[in-house]
Every structure is written in C-alpha cells, then in structure tokens.
Design brief:
The chain is α+β, with helices and mostly antiparallel strands and 100 residues long. It has helices spanning 2-10, 32-41, and strands spanning 19-23, 26-30, 46-49, 52-55, 64-77, 85-90, 93-99. The protein folds into two domains: 2-55, no CATH class; 64-99, no CATH class. Helices cover 19% and strands 45% of the residues.
C-alpha cells in the first residue's frame, strides 16, 4: 500500500491553468475572477488604460424631448387639457425641446 502513496507523491502536478482575454487586439493574462467579469460584460466593452484593464464609460444619452413651458406666445388649453388647445395667446404655453 505504501507503494501507492509513493507513486501518488511522485506523480507530476497538473500545471496551473492560465486565463487570457483579448483587449484591443492584445492577448493578456488575467485572473479567473477578472476573466469571468470580462466575459460577463463582453471583451468589446473593455479598454487598456495606463496598463490596467478598465470598462469603457457608457455613452451619454443624447435624448431630446418636448416640455411644456411658459413663453411669450403660446397655447391656451381648455380646462388645462394639453390635448385640447383653444387658441394662441401672449404669455401662453409652448412645447420646447430640451436636451439632456
């Protein structure tokens, strides 16, 4: 039985598994946790910045939407219903586009 233990003790160890990701066309070795994080978000969403792997900043939304505001010349609404303009008057409300 001791021969089995001796054989197991001299059995070659399995080499450590290395984990690689490709960021901006460069193959980089990382830890398992970092690889799992990068796989979760996608390699295309990461960049190299000063030697570190960082996630890209999300693009800023360029939404435009209309807001009802007082203006020099605008609409007067029947019973404050914005879907029922009665006439155009001085000091009424107008739809103005705001940017975020």
């Amino acid at each position: 039985m001791s021969e089995v233990y001796n054989a197991l003790a001299t059995f070659p160890k399995r080499p450590e598994k290395k984990h690689f990701v490709t960021i901006q066309g460069t193959k980089i070795e990382v830890s398992l946790q970092k690889k799992l994080e990068i796989m979760k978000h996608g390699e295309q969403n990461y960049i190299m910045k000063e030697g570190d792997i960082v996630i890209k900043a999300p693009p800023k939304a360029k939404t435009q939407y209309s807001v009802l505001k007082k203006s020099k010349k605008g609409y007067r609404f029947c019973e404050s219903d914005i879907h029922w303009p009665v006439d155009v008057m001085e000091g009424g409300e107008a739809w103005v586009i705001e940017h975020e």
